[in-house]
Amino acid sequence: MDIDTQQAALDDHHDDPGDLPVMRARFEHNGSPRYLLYTIKRFGFDRDHGFHLDVELVSDELEDGLETVEAKLHEGDADLIDIDYISTARERVGGAPIVAFHPYGRTVGGLVVHEDSAIEGLTDLRDCRVGVVRRLDKNWILTRAACREYHDFDPEDEAISVEAGSKVELTRMLRDGEVDAALQFWQIVPEIVETGPYREALPMADLVQRLSGADETLPISTFLTSEDYLAESPDAVEGFKRAYADAVERLQTDDDLWAELGERMMYEDDPAVVRGIRDGWREMVVADWDGEKVAAMERLFDHLLEVAGKDALGVDHIPEDMFRLEVTPTQ
């Protein structure tokens, strides 16, 4: 299913915003937030909470070193995106007036290999060609940190990292044998392994929990907006948080909705793939956050910085006021 078909499914639920404040959401066509966004539009949760969510799907390629959604926010063409909080820190330190106002989830990926591969885990990566979307991707950062922390080597030095530039290209490289393993994003892993002949050697979620020392699911990706939009449209931002809660509750309990998502919003509507994505989404999503959870996120960042270093992360601290746990509506 191509990007235009998915956009058409969303457009079926795009009505006239009228006098409601508009929030322009720009998300990757193969990113997992599109399931949440479709649910919000499908059931009118945005209108229920006093705003109009305008959803547009975009490519997952890089523009001047940024993911397309990041570029959209930087250029003033979006009010809502999601990226990992390490990238958010990197961009904010670089001067971008962006803030993280709500968690999304533990959106990490998996190490995928051919079913006949000898690679079983991190220790087998030495001298291998490892495909990554980009070297500053959270999956590669986690891999480097875990290898240095637990196995006394850095795969950036002892393996060959191959930068694909997009998720689509990374899958192609794996299937064409140009890499020995791929650190692919979680929602694409079921599409690869269920259609074979591939397997997931290691889920990155295991590394998040081990490195963080946290028992609860930590959000790695968050929803972002600009400082200006937050100041000008706090009611819309608060409305999104409430619509998000409604959509998460629906997605956690409604299996029929996932079947509909498979038909309208997925590249593979094989029932096994849909179930894999559904179960993975339910496991990784984070409904809300508080100061304790943000503190755990900051501890994970500090640990990654300690074991992987600034060069791996691209930033050496999380700026103050990057996380906005509270939104003050005008009403």
UniProtKB/TrEMBL annotation:
Residues 53-250 form the SsuA/THI5-like domain. It holds the Pfam family NMT1. It comes from the Archaea. SUPFAM superfamilies: Periplasmic binding protein-like II. This is Putative ABC transporter periplasmic solute-binding protein. It comes from Halopiger xanaduensis (strain DSM 18323 / JCM 14033 / SH-6).
